[in-house]
Amino acid sequence: MTHSAFPTGTILGYPRIGRRRELKRAVEAFWSGSIDAAELETRAAALRADTRARLAELGLGRTDSAIPESFSYYDQVLDAAVAVGAVPARFSRLVGADGQVDLAGYFTIARGEGEDAPLEMTKWFDSNYHYLVPEIGPETDFSAHGERLVAQVEEARAAGYLTRPVLVGPVTFLALAKPVDGAPEGFRPLDRLADLVPVYAELLADLARAGAEWVQLDEPALVSESLEDAPERIVEAVAAAYDRLGAAEDRPALFVAAPYCALGDALPALAATPVEAIGLDLVKGTVPERLDPATEESLAAKTLVAGVVDGHNIWRGDLAAAFDRASALANLSGSVAVSSSTSLFHVPHDVADETKLDQRLVGWLAFADQKVAQIATLARGLTEGRDAIAGELDAATTALADRAEAPGVRVPAVRERLSALGEADFARADYDARVAAQASLELPELPTTTIGSFPQTGDIRRARARLTKGELTEAEYTAEMRAEIERVIRLQEELGLDVLVHGEPERNDMVQYFAELLDGFAVTEHGWVQSYGSRCTRPSLLWGDVSRPEPMTVGWSTYAQSLTDKPVKGMLTGPVTILAWSFVRDDQPLGDTARQVALALRDEIADLEASGIRVIQVDEPALRELLPLKRADQPAYLDWSVGSFRLATGGAAAATQVHTHLCYSEFGVVIDAIRNLDADVTSIEAARSRMEVVDDIAASGFDHGIGPGVYDIHSPRVPSVEEVRSLLERAVAEIPASRLWVNPDCGLKTRGYEETVASLEHIIEATRAVRAEVAVTA
Ligand code: GLN
Ligand code: ZN
């Protein structure tokens, strides 16, 4: 079998939402019924055509498989599920006579319909992208449906391109799946590998027939040690899968990419298979110094694709170092190519769209288009020699030097404060003393509260838009927000909640709000990245030393507190979450940056306390997300992440009740870290899993206040009083009532008022009933 050569420069994937979020708009228009499927297809095809043209213009080859077909209407894992026929039984009505799922059906699997819950959603490796979790059982009937991808390859060819289709690989697909409900104890989706691989072989054959010379299979499961299946099992699966796929006669050349971390022990296993090219993440990982002779021999015959341009962050970076790293692979193979370390869908489209950013900062940045150009440069260096690109390498080095010296990047006052920190700054009074001091809050047993935000109504969003456009003055905007805060406080008093919130109407986003008020951050105009489906976020850029020029939340919180005698929670976003949901400087350890943010929050907490706020919540929903994929790296991460939370809250008086909130129910994974946060009260998600998490909590001996959510805010459904009551009864059976709190799973900002009020009424009524039961037992 002979194959065309792998392109010298490529990317693992490109943003698919569109430079102005055209795909988001088209998809949402389809959902609302204002355009039909044909119109959606037309708009998506136009977007793909633009992407190919842009990538060619930026220097990727038109006809050498350098341009990836990485489009998706919603999610690449859902695409794979549909392509292998893995549609859950509850959606089997959506599969047509030809075995295919049409666009409407595809979105129904993603979003649910009536009683049929959508596929679960969870975070993609260590990113803030969420994929849909396939459901695989012993009976799942796999069959090949590559029509969409085939059509894209043909569409590209008709326009004069030879592109490279991208698919989630079979091992990663199964490793990310969960067993169907009712699967036998111990069953793992990966048990079905031998049945799935022949279907992938068929997909590959279809793509080859359509003219694809290379196909990319993404196998990030290979680099992770945090999946349910043991790393050894995944490595074995990869060997089996690619031996089988490689043995097929009628296949394209195979490029297996392993983004997000080092391949480590999986490299020899992959090297021993017949795949033609292997993609290595050389931003997060390195190639082992020594490889065994057999691995060296097999690698020598393959293309090594050096992922040296960071696909996960927005810095222009050290291009010369990237070139050297790629060139060094020449020791291992005569065929070396350069690529992004991951798909570029984690970064926005184009720095050139940012007209309001400081021009000096712009010179340090590279969004997707700039990264593609960098890769084209490096590829030219590989073919023509370093001298041919010396000018570009030097320009990047100069920008890096400029960045190191620019005002604001290293602020002496911030650095002195950090270096003066001692152990005492990370600890509060002991817990029992705090409980005693906080008795002055006079809370009932099973106190009720919410997570912070109330529904963000159209009026609130319009007011913010008008402020931005200059149609509202700052004073008019403040007045509108205050009126909203007053409504939310009155509502909570009427409902009878115990610890109130101000409702967060003034926050566009829980991270960006703070980024706009802190020094060291910049915000973009068009820097959207896909979070899931049609949902996008606009991460802020954390480029310099962080400090707080003035209080950020005190005005809103004290206003809210002035309206009521009940305690109102101050509401802050924690340092880890601020980092996780921003693009963060890469020129110092994350822990140093986190401690700078923590100090700014610490000052905010001191100001809140001084103005009479007695309960303060510091949200850390992203604590789990940044957990490194390699076990060996996890302790150091937990040390700095937990440390930064403790630094932020460590100055709070014993009488101040510190809350935290985490957005997931995999409590067990990070239980020690959560304990070490040492918050007085922790609220977590629990309603979706029907309080399963209380077992973990009880088993772990967690002995601070805990509020397992009783209301799934991801759904418009209103839980009944009985339902909430049974959840609470389940919780009090395992957790002493004196430590149990009652709250929803998360903030209410995406909900409407109608269901919010009804749900909160039911929660309060259920709580009263369970309080009475507990009193009787006592
Ligand atoms: N306080 C935030 C809110 O209620 C928390 C959001 C979150 O956990 N993602 O909206
Ligand atoms: Zn949450």
From TrEMBL:
Pathway: Amino-acid biosynthesis; L-methionine biosynthesis via de novo pathway; L-methionine from L-homocysteine (MetE route): step 1/1. Its cofactor is Zn(2+). Residues 10-331 form the Cobalamin-independent methionine synthase MetE N-terminal domain. GO terms for biological process: methionine biosynthetic process; methylation. One of its GO terms (molecular function) is 5-methyltetrahydropteroyltriglutamate-homocysteine S-methyltransferase activity. It catalyses: 5-methyltetrahydropteroyltri-L-glutamate + L-homocysteine = tetrahydropteroyltri-L-glutamate + L-methionine. It holds the Pfam family Meth_synt_2. Its EC number is 2.1.1.14. 5-methyltetrahydropteroyltri-L-glutamate binds at residues 21-24, 123, 128, 535-536, 581, 625. The keyword Metal-binding applies. L-homocysteine binds at residues 451-453, 504, 619. Belongs to the vitamin-B12 independent methionine synthase family. This is 5-methyltetrahydropteroyltriglutamate--homocysteine methyltransferase. It comes from Agromyces sp. G08B096.
